[in-house]
Amino acid sequence: MPLPKPWSSPGEDRHRALADGELTQEAVLAMVDRLETDQPARAIQRRVLSEGNHPWADFLSAPVNEVALADAIETAPELPTPVPSGQFDIGAVAQAFESDGLLMVDGRQPRRRR
């Protein structure tokens, strides 16, 4: 799996122990920086890692304050209410299922079973 661009290792140092170690260090530090933000979701992630005794918790600061899960969940954008077209005929749908429970209309026939 290729590394994301910020951590790609161009040039002749590819697959050398020191270059690979430095690249790993950069990737780990970038991930730690991302988890160390004040965002509520990141605080919950740190708490879960810490309380679960996960090895990654050793790289992170434990959250000082409890964070409510509701604070970490983004509010979904409000979607417009659809306007009914008035073209849906529930009777026609029910009738299509009446024949052995198959949705066969307009002369369609079920496939033969093999």
Topology of this protein?
Layout (H helix, E strand, L loop, with lengths): L16 H19 L4 H12 L17 H4 L17 H9 L16
Provide structural commentary.
- The chain is mainly alpha-helical and 114 residues long.
- It is built from four helices and no strands.
- It has helices at 17-35, 40-51, 69-72, 90-98.
- The mean pLDDT is 81.
- Tell me the number of strands: 0
User: Radius of gyration, rounded?
Assistant: 28 Å
Major β-sheet profile? none
> How much helical structure, as a percent, in the residues?
25-40%
Which structural class do you get from the secondary structure elements?
mainly alpha
- List the total number of helices: 4
Overall mean confidence score, pLDDT: 81
Poorly predicted runs are none
User: Strand percentage, roughly?
Assistant: under 5%
Shape verdict: elongated
Instruction: Spell out the helices and strands N to C.
Output: HHHH
What is the distance, rounded to the nearest whole angstrom, between the alpha carbons of the first and last residues? Answer: 42 Å
What tags apply to this protein structure?
elongated; mainly alpha
Offer a concise description of the structure.
The chain is mainly α.
